[in-house]
Amino acid sequence: MDTSKDSAKDLAAAILPLVGGPANITSVAHCMTRLRLGLADPSLADEPALRALTGVLGVVADDGTYQVVLGPGVVARVTEDFERLTAARRLAVRGARLREEQRRRNATPLKTALRRLAAVFVPLVPALVGCGILAGVNGLLVNAGWLPGLTPALAALASAFMALITVFVGYHTAKEFGGTPILGGAVAAIVVHPGVAKVTAFGVHLSPGQGGVLGALAAALLATRVERWCRGRVPDALDVLLTPALTVLVAGLGTLYGIMFAAGAVSSAIGTAANWLLATTGAFAGLVLGGLFLPLVMVGLHQALIPIHTTLIEQQGYTVLLPVLAMAGAGQVGAAVAVYVRLRTDTSLRTTIRSALPAGLLGVGEPLIYGVSLPLGRPFLTACAGGAAGGAFVGFFAMLGDQVGATAIGPSGWALFPLLAGNRGLGVTAAIYAGGLLTGYAVGFAATYTFGFTRRTSPASPTA
Predict the structure, then answer these.
(1) How far, rounded to the nearest angstrom, does the alpha carbon of residue 326 sit from its chain's CA centroid?
(2) Neighbours of 238 (CB within 10 A)
(3) Is 279 among the domain residues?
(4) 74 band by pLDDT with thresholds 50, 70 and 90
(5) 169, 121 in Cβ contact below 8 A?
């Protein structure tokens, strides 16, 4: 038999499908002459076909292992190539198992509520992104003094959605929580109606928009509760008339005389707290937020930040939290590149990283998280270290008065550049954000390259 490296690879590739494929392999080892395999289902092995392969000297099923006799010398080379072929699949299986375990852990009342809350705001992301990009382009044109006849039109296009975002929040809230969507939108529209300025409650005049998206969310939830209460009590003959009227009346009055005041106070507190946090403890806050965001994504708690981002965008025109949190993705990219460099012989894993890396650079980190760093173990922790360093970089400049914000939620990584905004001009804002990304890449790479592997970590044994 030809004992060249290519022959060993060909023989390993020929054996793999005949023992049930990568999904059927639970362990790989060899002795002096035999490739010893643990098979999840031994009945999937095709023994006659294996015996017929050139280079296979025999097949033995004994002691819970499936043994392919290859002979001395040859067996070591074939085993090495066989392990490479199965390593990527094992990693993928482990990642899938981790995702499933995480899904089961996330099935708590709190996390279910957070997912439903996210379902209210996620449909709004395309409009937020589109309008955010237009707002950024309009800002550039205004600052440069270009196309003065076009900028008012662009300003209207960019701001129209934000002026009515409460209606869309109310619509999707009612839809998600079991109410009639249009009634949720109708009650939420009260929050931004100019007529509320004529309403005096407890000696204080209301302001249109007071409470913002949080007020709209609460108003639509109240409308849904009122509607569902009415559905069970109003006679069928009167349901089509009384239920909508009572829903708008009761929930609307509750919105005017309670929700708008409470939500307004909470919204103001969120804006004040976010600005104070970064201005006062920016580097430390960035370190914590950037370092913990990947674990928050894993447990689903990042969904609680969506209304906060939306509130900040509504109040200030941008959210100062998203660029800091986006640094977690930079740490993940740096860690993935370090894995690619260190595991030079694992061609399957390197192929996975090459295919997932472009998405990671654009802020889509799940393929790298669940396909590479989390199954490997330590690289996930070192990726968090890179995110913490990038977050600290952006937070440090916030302490100096240079705010970096995003006019929309959703994109991160390089995709966030068109949505950047700040108080020092786009050039300074983009430079700080780019510096944070580079810091996250560098620290994520260095930490992973230095501390992300143990002696047991190998292409065939992807555990840390």
Answers:
(1) 10
(2) 11
(3) no
(4) confident
(5) yes
* pLDDT above 90 for 417: yes
DSSP class of residue 179 equals S
Same domain? 101 vs 168: no
Cα 303 to Cα 30, 92, 115, 237, 450, distances in angstroms = 48, 26, 7, 42, 33
Phi, psi of 61 (to 5 degrees): -110, 110
For 129-158, the pLDDT digits (tens) are 898 888 888 888 987 889 999 999 999 999
The answer, as to whether pTM is greater than 0.85, is: no
Alpha-carbon torsion (171, 174, 176, 180), positive or negative: negative
Closest Cα to residue 412, out of 323, 335, 332, 331? 323
Report the C-alpha gap between 417 and 439 in whole angstroms.
16
Tokens standing for residue 298: 């894993």
CA distance 335 to 373: 7
Rounded Cα distance between 66 and 59, Å, is 8
**Domain shared by 126 and 9, yes or no:** no
Catalytic residue set: 31
Predicted confidence (pLDDT) per residue in 263-311, tens digit: 999 999 999 999 999 999 999 999 999 999 998 887 767 777 889 999 9
Three-state DSSP at 67 gives strand
Regarding whether 128 and 101 lie in a shared domain, the answer is no
